[in-house]
Design goal:
heterodimer, A: mainly beta, Porin, 16-stranded antiparallel sheet, 1 helix, 58% strand, globular, B: mainly beta, Methylamine Dehydrogenase, Chain H, 4-stranded antiparallel sheet, 28 strands
Chain lengths: 248, 328
């Protein structure tokens, strides 16, 4: 049944006629990028807590808004920004624009490289900081398990100094049932290959990680509950987020 | 992972500012100081021709005029008029880059009561109470010039110079250890014994391009601000870097709050201000980022939860309310 749906989806994507309902509920069966003409709106609410040197430096509640659009059958545009609710309510004046391209889809392997550009509307002259090139290698380990590697493969700091970094990240998606999936991932390390090094942060100092439970409803709606934080130091860096994503 | 950290520890609000008299079209600020004795910020007003005294609580400004003035303002520069100040305990001292003079100012008279020519373009002036001297950093000739001071009657006399090859950039006095500290441009910091005037070894401060300096007298830490945006901490007993963070762009002047163990560092390119925590063993960590100003490269703190960042183009000070708890 799922194989048939996947084949149907492939035809729809190729012909540009995919509808929101055509995307399968299983995360592991969905394509790396949204089909052409499809849009997904995500609204998230989250709370983050962080301590540094024994004092609380963050206890913040905020909203995230993300819009994904399939520009073509292979190219996806993703724009995200945030609003602080508490404290200091207002637009965060930061955002991320990401382009992802489905370069190749095999039986078990898929490749969807991406470019993420952070943007800031703050008062300084630095409009961006670190561009991120991702490989987006997806390996369907089994019908229910997918491993994604290299979403943050090559971070390229451009301000305040130019550098070439390389990072290791991994995400595992396990399909628990047709509509339930659990996703977990981590950035395992990041080192500077060329350029100025931020010696203040060793590659192993922080391991940003997340675990997310996703329910895909019948009406093209995904609801996700996420825990995230620093796996090396979860007491000092942790957060929770609830995200609702609707495909149109 | 969230596309955006909700957390960016960033204030979404706009900080208030304190306009300086004759602030338009801008002021080339450089050195800002806080006088605990006067409970006033000491703000040399560059082209405005004023030494401004600012109440950190009410933000009321008292201007003492009579210094070099012009209507011309070059954004990003700070080469005109008085740009550095020191509190001598009874008098104030200011250095005037245009007249090339060091002057003693009597606040009761609101007037200059003594002055002396400086050997080269002055950068910072600092009061060395232990020897009753004013030290003036003069990077153009790579020296610190020493002026002997008598307060009553007020007199000034140049008595010596100290060679600081490759510097001196910025200057701070650690009265507890009896040392002055200054940076070398190419990533090093040196200590100078204020009594013997001997220059110690150069310690790597991990800056590509050294700028501002501050000191934690209680713990014997020296902080360096780096133009590329780092701040670092050095243990003055060993010369080793104990902490380093790189969160901003374009750091110059920095200042330390001993009561909170917070270090303030404006990024003049990123136009924001980093608030860093300093552990007692010299670790540095970013607590948060607040507003700043483009080309706002100078800062001082009242050590009571406020930092004041210069806004040259606005001819004003940006007020940073530091709400983070003290680091123990």
């Amino acid at each position: 049944m799922r194989a048939a749906r996947t084949r149907l989806l492939a035809v729809c994507i190729a012909t540009g006629t995919a509808r929101a309902e055509d995307l399968p509920p299983e995360l592991v069966a969905r394509p790396p990028t949204l089909p052409g003409g499809m849009t997904a709106l995500s609204l998230g609410v989250g709370y983050d807590l962080a301590h540094v040197l024994g004092i609380t430096v963050r206890s913040a509640t905020g909203l995230t808004l993300e819009i994904q659009r399939g520009l073509t059958s292979r190219l996806e545009l993703d724009v995200a920004s945030g609003v602080m609710v508490h404290p200091d309510p207002g637009w965060t004046r930061d955002g991320v624009v990401t382009l992802a391209y489905t370069a190749w889809r095999g039986a078990d392997l898929e490749l969807a490289p991406s470019l993420a550009v952070p943007l800031t509307a703050r008062s300084g002259v630095d409009l961006t900081s670190t561009l991120v090139l991702g490989a987006g290698l997806r390996w369907h380990v089994s019908p229910c398990v997918m491993l994604t590697l290299g979403q943050r493969l090559i971070p390229l700091p451009v301000r305040p100094a130019v550098a070439l970094d390389i990072a290791a990240d991994a995400t595992v998606t396990a399909q628990l049932a047709e509509r339930w999936a659990i996703v977990g991932g981590a950035v395992l390390g990041e080192v500077t290959i060329v350029g100025q090094t931020d010696r203040g942060v060793a590659p192993w100092h922080h391991v940003p990680s997340f675990a997310r439970l996703v329910y895909a409803s019948e009406n093209a709606l995904d609801v996700a509950l996420e825990l995230h934080g620093d796996a090396r130091d979860p007491r000092n860096e942790a957060g929770i987020a609830l995200t609702v994503a609707r495909r149109l | 992972m969230n596309k955006l950290a909700l957390a960016a520890a960033l204030c979404a609000c706009s900080a208030p500012s304190i306009p300086m008299p004759n602030g338009a079209p801008g002021i080339g600020f450089d050195d800002l100081q806080y006088s605990k004795r006067l409970h006033r910020l000491l703000v040399p007003g560059g082209r405005s021709g004023n030494l401004d005294l600012v109440d950190p609580d009410t933000h009321a400004v008292t201007a003492i005029g009579g210094f070099s003035t012009t209507t011309n303002f070059e954004s990003g520069g700070h080469d005109f008029g008085i740009t550095a100040v020191a509190d001598l305990g009874s008098l104030l001292a200011v250095s005037d880059r245009t007249s090339g003079k060091l002057a003693l100012v009597d606040l009761d008279m609101a007037a200059v009561v003594a002055s002396a020519a400086i050997g080269s373009t002055p950068d910072y002036i600092r009061w060395v109470a232990a020897t009753s001297e004013i030290w003036v950093s003069e990077p153009d000739r790579e020296k610190i010039e020493v002026f002997a001071v008598t307060l009553s009657p007020p007199t000034l006399a140049s008595v010596a110079t100290i060679a600081v090859v490759g510097g001196p950039e910025s200057l701070v006095i650690d009265a507890t250890s009896g040392h002055a500290y200054t940076n070398l441009w190419s990533g090093a910091t040196v200590g100078v014994d204020v009594t013997t005037r001997s220059v110690g070894p150069a310690w790597s401060n991990h800056c590509n391009d050294s700028r501002g300096i501050a000191v934690d007298e209680a713990r014997g830490l020296v902080f360096a601000g780096c133009a590329e945006g780092r701040v670092t901490a050095i243990d003055a007993s060993t010369g080793n870097v104990t902490g380093e963070v790189w969160e901003l762009d374009g750091i110059d002047v920095i200042d330390f709050s001993p009561s909170r163990r917070h270090l303030y560092a404006p990024g003049q390119i990123s136009a924001n201000t980093g608030i860093f925590g300093v552990s007692t063993n010299g670790d540095l960590a970013l607590l948060g980022i607040d507003d700043g100003a483009l080309y706002g490269h100078c800062v001082t703190t009242d050590d009571a939860g406020h930092a004041f960042v210069c806004d040259p183009r606005g001819g004003a000070l940006v007020v940073i309310d530091d709400t983070f708890a003290a680091v123990k």
